Amino acid sequence: MSKSNPEELIRLSLIEWMVAECGYPRSLIAKEGSASQGRRFDILCYKPGEEGLAPLLLVECKAGALTPSAEQQLLGYNQFIQAPFVCLANGTSVETIWYEQGQRRSVPFIPPYNQLICHAR
Question: CATH classification of 6-119 is 3.90.1570.30, yes or no?
Answer without folding.
Answer: yes
